[in-house]
Design a protein that fits this description.
ibrinogen binding protein from staphylococcus aureus fold, five-stranded antiparallel beta sheet, about 20% strand, alpha+beta, six-stranded antiparallel beta sheet, single chain, 4 domains
Amino acid sequence: MTIDGLTLYTCVSELRQQMIGAKIDKIHQPARDEIVLLLRTQSQNLRLLISLSAGECRLGLTENPKPNPPSPPTFCMFLRKHITNARIASIEQVGLERIVHIGLAGKDELGIEKNTTLIIELMGKYSNAMLVSPEGRILESAKHVPFGMSSVRQVLPGLGYETPPSDKYNPLTLSESTFREILSQIGEKPMAKFLVQHFQGVSTQTADELCARYLPAPFGALSRGDQSRFIENVLNFFKSVSSGDIQPTIQFDHFGAPQFFSVVPFATQVFDHAKTFASANAMLDAFYAARDTAIALSRKKHQIEAIAAKALAKWVKKLRIQTDAMAGAEKAEKFKLYGDLIMAHIYMLKRGMDKAAVTDYMTGEAVEIPLEKQYTPAANAQRYFKKYNKMKKAAEMNAEYIETTKTEIDFLESVLASIETCENQEELAEVRFELIRAGYIAENPGAKREKPTQEASAPHTFVSSDGLTIRVGKNNRQNDALTLKTAEPDDLWLHTQKIPGSHVIIQSGGKHIPDRTIEEAAALAAYFSKARGSSKVPVDYTLKKNIRKPNGAKPGYVIYETYSTLLAEPDEALVKKLKKEI
């Protein structure tokens, strides 16, 4: 999610109060599209982040430092040379456009006053930052835009700086009469789309919010008085925000991932829970820090998932080969029969025959047996006995191999299921460690030996409608700890039947467990399994004392014989309802 002009206006207003007079102490460029200015004021040190990322361009203070590359990029070195020790003289936004001018007052090597302007354009994939001379000449830019990239506007050192063309209106400077005149051109266009196209600082979400708040019907269908009220309300909305009447808010989903931010709460953008902040800068810093964490977690998830999925595909292919070999082994009995029949009728056979027409003494049916001419009847019989013994032995070996293969497949499928439920790096590290111990991920010889945390991380905790605690493991290590160490003998254990998923424990406390709680726990077991997208998922349940883990079994693998089964529906709404906040 990118910052819009209205949110940027609020951020710039806050920055103006904090940064005017601040000295640029250090300059870093952690990534090609990120610049960090370390500022020193009389009372505090500040870190100004300028992000030119296409999807997350923004400007604001941050408390989250990022590692720097071994050698600074060219633009970073240029800024260090020209604006280190300069002071922030002004910070201005161009209307409500996503363009900010930071005026810098400094001195050159000879001590002569040298003023420059750092211009930041936050316009998606066209975002850029430029250092411009007092005469308006571009000294250097983060991204060069030659004629070959754009015939409309070039950005190169030595060229004059030109503000990107815009025919949008600034709602902070509009009168009601001018606003009405502009809206007279709306025609059949939806109001939200019209606002985005014609007014600065209005994102699609802001336009939707304005329409939801103040437009009860299509604009053309309103009376003149209602039209005037709409115009007045929209202008007052912008004036209220620009005067500092704000409540910076982030909306989070039920997994805790940030989904939306705004300087005032939007009724059209409501998720599972919201958090307010003292300033727009603090809001943006928290939002993008959480987003960066989520992106990093997602990236690592995909890496580990790819390793497990590749290994799973190999075992599935091996199982298919082994199963085919077992099917072929069913022919072994026929070869034994051929050998027995040849020996039983050897008196009527001789070398040079290519087949033997004999009677099966067990069924009385006629059987035709292929023979090799160059061998005697006895040698032909021995050849069939040899094939029989070979295929029989192969079948016995394949039976053992198939069990091993199925165990590995079950393990990898459970790993893939647990990767989906990982909510942080610690839980993902536990899954990764499982794969290291199982030999699917090689340890880096030069790195410190990886170890999981001292104790398994905490499982999901829920409270049933009857007030009983239900715990759900997030990975195999948690499943083992939950079932084998945490659960009491009379607690109820649940798991999807023959489907990879989490271990679920209902903590009974020695009391009777109501059917409603069992049904809710079964729904949780179905939700936290590979069958999350299915319906009517079979879930086994039994007392924990009936569960045992074979020696040498894979993490998360247990066996049980006494159990009952019910069909459960994975229910996300129930997950949200029963979730206990820690």
